[in-house]
Amino acid sequence: MSLDQAKLLHFYESMRRIRRFEEAAIDVFSAGKIPGFIHSYIGEEAIAVGVCGALEPTDYITGTHRGHGHCLAKGMRMDRMMAELYGKRTGYNRGKGGSMHIADFSCGVLGCNGIVAGGIGLATGAAWGSQVQQNGRVVASFFGDGASNRGSFHEAINIASIWKLPIVYVLEANGWGISLATSKAINLTDLSERAKAYGIPGVSVDGYDVLAVYQAAQTAVDRARQGEGPTLLVCNAPRMRGHEEGDPQPYRSKEDIEEARRNDPLRRYRAYLLANKLAGESDLEAIDARVEAEVVAALKFADESPYPDPEEALEGLFAEEI
Amino acid sequence: MREITYAQAINEALREEMRRDPTVITMGEDIALIGGNFGVTKGLLEEFGPTRVKDTPISEDAIVGLAIGSALVGMRPVAEIMFSTFLGCCMEELFNQAAAIRYMSGGQVQLPLVVRTANSLGRSGAAQHSGRVEAWFMHTPGLKVVLPSTPYDAKGLLKAAIRSNDPVMYFEHAMAYYKVKGPVPEEDYTVPLGVADIKRPGKDVTIVSYSLMVHKALQAAEMLAQQGIEAEVIDLRSLVPLDVDTVVESVKRTHRLVIASEECGRAGVCAEVAYCVMEKAFDYLDAPIQRVTAKDVPVPFSPPLEKFMMPEAEGVVSAVQRLLR
Question: Which region holds residue B197: left if phi is over 0, alpha if psi is between -120 and 50, else beta?
């Protein structure tokens, strides 16, 4: 696969944006500035970036409770995302959604979702809407290995298969459903075998390898756009941190955590670009500096933004108020 | 004016809205090829084709997911869930997704979707095919809840629901489909959501009801008239929005209120209506509010058992007599 340098550097920048956004969010969460919970996307950056790299700006995605990476990779702004995490009025959801429910419909992000597998059904509906409108748009629905045990996964993928809907089901296999190892929740080693039950292609890739994810996603997206139906794309990326910030992972061995961290996808991609002379140190440092400035500005924006007026809790329930 | 059945009225509403607006699409179990388990969607496949009228697998969760997602990208889906008890199979999509998405997104989007379903007490469906589950949705902020009793209202309310930019739970009644007939204009009209209708005026007592129970309330009013009691019968027509004002105005005139519904009594619609009236018209009440509902058990199968647990016109008459004693 040959990719132009701009695309390779875009992938790096996009992964770096996610990593730094998450690190910054964890810092301010620990400092008590962010209410609720943070489920960090650290370690899964290559998945969102590789998949969104294969999408057009007008395509759609659905994210998960661990969804900051999906939003950033699809092109959402850091400052309004950070403000949403803070619960500020300038956040994408005006402080009504928070970390698990960020959405930007103008950007094709049909919402992150606090319910495991909650985005799969509506992603499938968006794919149906696109098929009826014949607008050529594709949907990528992100969810975890735990979500693939829910009934909504089964019902939605079955319909997408029989109706040949333009959708890619992206299973982010991080190996855990909070404390339950996937090996104790699913009696398969290769989760892409689940695709056989629906008569659709199932592909497994290294979810730490952005180029492998991109390549597999492009094949699946092309297939969807050509009207050939869905693909189940399994991206294996062992969870680098706890289920949520503050989870000490007593259920998991130190070696397991260490191994995941050794394989850090961002460090690995950076080394790959340098070793293959696809980018120079100065190119990457320039990107790092740009991302750093964006993070600093996002934190400042979130800090300085006002909270919503309490009465705003009663606004926006219906399009036609009652 | 011509008279048609409740089922025909719903069919006409669907047909006219699909002609009027190409973004209206419909899907559900057995709705296309055979025109629905109750025959309500007959002829839609023939007129609008298989892209807009879809038979789905038995997958209620996915049916509602399809409605939400397609609504998010510009369609106006009308999903059918065959029996309202089957809403138990897709509560996740309704409760956590459809109801919450607009609010949770800070008002970024509209969800112009309708879920049509059938309540069906009174046909020996037993516990799993005799739903009256509207209270679940009245208790879920973010959904509008509509329950027509007559063909005129069924058509006008469904057209309004389809044109609404919010998610609407539209409860039909299986016992009304072919048994209830009434006048329906041929020209286009809508019935706005949230406007109750006085189905029979009276001065001695107010009977509030909705859906099929309105017909039993009207029977009760007829029986009471023979005893010289003039009952006013109000059909709520929608529970969200709830037209409290029409009920309160009536109670201010009659000073007595009976609320009648086929639902289980406990923590239900009647309790909510009673609270709203107490809040706004407590000083006008001459007697405690009465409610007439089904008993708090799963619906039994055998006809004498089912009949015993269901509310009937006689129960409404007794409640009124208790008030006037």
Answer: beta
